[in-house]
Structure formats: C-alpha cells, structure tokens
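Recap from last week: sequence in, structure out.
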Amino acid sequence: MFSEKCLILSLLWTFYLCSAQDNVSPVLTCPASVNISTTSIHATANWIITVTDNVDTDITATCDLNSGSLFTIGQTIITCLASDSAGNLGSCTFKVNVVDKGNPSVQCPGVITAETGSSNQARVVWYPPFVTDNLDNNLVAICTPVSGVSFGFGSTTVNCIATDAAGNVGSCNFRVDVIDNAPPNITCCNDIYVGKDPIIWLVDVHWTYPIVNDNIDISPETTCRRYAHHEEANQPAVLDVGTYTYACTAKDSAGNSATCTFVIAVINDSVSPTVSCPIDMHVKSSGTTVAVNWDDPVVSDNIDIALSTYCSPSSGSLFTQGLAVVQCYSTDDAANVGSCAFQVNVTFVEDHVDPTVVCPNDMSTSTTSSVATPTWDVTVTDNVDAHVVATCVPNSGSVFNIGETTVTCSATDTAGNSDSCTFKVTALFIENGGTGEDDDDGGDDGNGGDEDNREVEDNTEVKDFTEDNSENDTSSVNLNVIIGAGAGLCAFTLLVVLLIFRFYYSYKKELLKSRTATIDSIGTRTYTTPISDDTFVRYAGYEHRLPNSDGLYDSVNLRVPSTTYADNHSYVSVDDN
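Predicted structure tokens:
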C-alpha cells in the first residue's frame, strides 16, 4: 500500500516538473564601447560577451561581427543575440570606435642650391612636397618660408607641415643654400703719363688703388702688382723711363675674383707748359690804389694735365697809378717751367659822382615763431669803380622781431663818394601754421600786397534745404546752398530769394493745375495760359506732353479725336506732372 502511494507521488511530481514553462530571456552583457586606434585604414577589435540564463548554462551569444574582425576608421554599432533552450531571446548592443592616429607622410626635396648673382639674395622655387595619408587624399604641405621668396646668402632651413582631417601632423624639412658665384666689381684708375726731367734718374709716380664693390663682402681683399713681377706694387712707384702695366685683383670670401689693369708711362720731358695770360688790363681809379682781379691763366702741357699757375703780383692785389707787369708761371712734373706776362695800366680819374644804391621794395615775411630771418639783395653801380659793395643795417639774413623794421643800406666808392637807401621789413606772426607771402609791390597791408587782391581760403560746407508740400501735391525743391565762412549776410539774402522763388513756383503750379478749357467743337481748341516746362495736358485718359524748353509756353493747341468727343462739353485740364 505504501509503495503504491510512493509511486503515485513520484508520478505526480514528474508530471509537475514536465508541465512547468521557461519564460525568462537570457541576459547578455556587452562592453560599454570598444575604442581602438590605428595608423592604417582599419583595425582589429576584440571583446567578450557574457550570457546568463535562469535555466540553461551553456548559452553562446552571436554578434553582427565577431570579435577579432577588422573595422574601418569611424564608428560601428554591434548587436549581439542569444536564445535559451526554451526559445527566449536576449540581446545587447555596443559601439566600436576606430580612431585615426596615422600621421601624414611628407616627402621634402633635397638640398636646393641657388646663386646670388649680382645681388646678395636669390629667389628659390621648389615643387610642393609629396604628401600621403592612410585615410585622407589631396593633402597639401605648408612650407615656411614659402616657395618663390628670396633667400639671403648662406643656408636656410625650410620646414613643411601637413595636417590630416583627424589633426595628425606630418612634417619634413630641407635646406636652401644660397652661394656666391658673383665676382667683385673692380675699377682701376686711368692710365698715368708722367714726364721726367732727363737729368733725373728715377721719378716717383703716385697712383690710386682701384674701387672695389661686392654683393656680399664689404671690403674684398685687393692686391696690385706690376706686370711680370710677383711682389706687391709700391706706393708711390719709383720708375725710370718706360711703360709699366699694373694688374689689380679683388677676391671675395667665396673665392670669386676679378682683375683690372692700368698703365704708367714715364717719358723724358723737356717741353715746357704753354701758359696763356689774360689780355692787358686798363683800370680807372679815383684813389691812390685799386684792387685788380683777373681770371687764372690757361695752361696746357704735352704730358701733364690740370697744372696750376701762380702770378706775381697775384690777382686781387693793390695796384698804384701807372703801368705794371704781371708775370705768371706754371711748372710740370718734369720741372719744365712755362710763363706768360700781361700789363695792368691804372689811370687816375677824378670822381665826384656818388654811387647808386638800389634797395628792394618794402617787404613782408611770415613766421610761426617770435622772430623771422628775411633775406634780400642790394645792387650798387658806380661810374668808376666796378666792385662797390653795399652794407645794410640790419644785414640780410639777420633776426627780425615781429613788427616793422627800417633797413638802411649804404655804399662808398674809392673816391669817398657815398649813397644810401632804405626800405621796410614787416615780420608777421602766423598762428597755427597759417601762410603768408613776401611781396615786392610796396604794399604795407601785412599780406604782401593790396588788400583787395588778398585771397582767403576756407573750407566750405554744402547744405541741402529741401521743402515739401505734400498736401498741395507740389514737388519739393532741393536747394544746394554753399555757405562760405564769413559770408553769412550773403547766404541769408540768397536764402530769402530762393524761398520767394519756391513759393512763386508752387503758386504758379497750383494755378495751372486748377484751370480747365472747354472744347466747343470737334477739332482744334487753343488754350492760352502760362505753362511751364515738362507739362502734361490730359483729356479723357489721353495726355500730351509739352516739349522741354528753357522758357515758358504762352499757349498750347489741343486736338481732340472726333471719335472720342462728339459733344461740346468736354473739359481739358492742364497740370504739372
């Protein structure tokens, strides 16, 4: 009996267990996200998904892409699913982020060599560096300095940088070498010809070092040697009769060199210079002595140039009455002496005539300080003396205070005759950089001339006066009035005249607007009234525009179409458009 009960209970328990249902889905645990970086175009991503279930213990999740798959740069969403034996489905999602960490590859050119030429710089151009990237295309490298600029002498490093869309930076650099291949510019002195006294064995010849310029070096090394000699040339050169060639070479720090030559010719010279004196001079004087001046004699030589002369007595010396002989000499480098002579004849003249002193007209000068320094010229003529000089008090160029100053100029000839003249100098103070002009017409108005001729310069202001009368349907009149500084009364008068004209014009238009004419019959009707320029005559929707004119029309002829107006009571209105 007991065994039958146990068997029944076992069967019932087995039936309960077999009849129970599983409605719980598996639980999947995904990573929050998978973040990886790459220097290529893709990367491998790995992850672990855990699955738990209330019944099953060996459930495996299946994802869109398996762990260990290759992912391109960017973001990918992964979904994973798992089901238990009862068919319950669970899922989870996560993101795989692949970040670009690959720097662009930038390939620079090699060393670029450029020559300076005649300047100390060279313009250098290069092709853009070649740029490649794991993801981005058409990247451009930016170089500093840029291609096409001028580089100074020496070596300069050029840095080039390229940046991709992810902010990764690639770079390279190269060197620009600017070398100096331009030789110095050297200019030797002119050939030198020296005459030597035949009784002298050797002669000293002074020569000038060449002028040297270089595009880089300030003072290139320069040496001069006599041709076929190794030693450096002496200064001065001690030479016998003959022709000698000298070569001068300039060399810069880059090793570039240039050479020029010149010749020194030493000649036995026994020919004296030719000296040409002034013609004989006749001078009148009213005194016991007189200063006599003349031009230097002209000298020429078979070898030497620019020889000097000396005379006895010298030009400007005092001569007494009577005849005197002036002897002039010139000596060349070979000690050959040339000479000439001329006469100075001083004649006494009794002089009782005063010289004539001519002063300038009264003058004015302007200054922005407290003093002025005007200048002027005074002319003196005399019946005997050729060089009489006037003395002024104050002198020309002296400091003058603001105001009026009288200047007195006087002159005395050798006979003691004298003359004088006076004029006035007015110094004007101009404030804030004002301008004033000197005038020689004797005006004393402080501005160098007649007051009526003065010019006043000032800025003018243009004002626009616009009046509108919309109620009467009249056009506005824009008046541009130029109001100058200091012309207020003139502007006011002009404004009153323009306002009167404006009201008259508006009143006239109102009269024209209100007038009508009756057409008595079909045909032509003459309407007489003052009609202004640019006026329309309207009738029954038709209008006739009067031609433009500078004056006023006395009348207008209106022709009415017969098909439009058959009655005798039509009206024609005349108004201004």
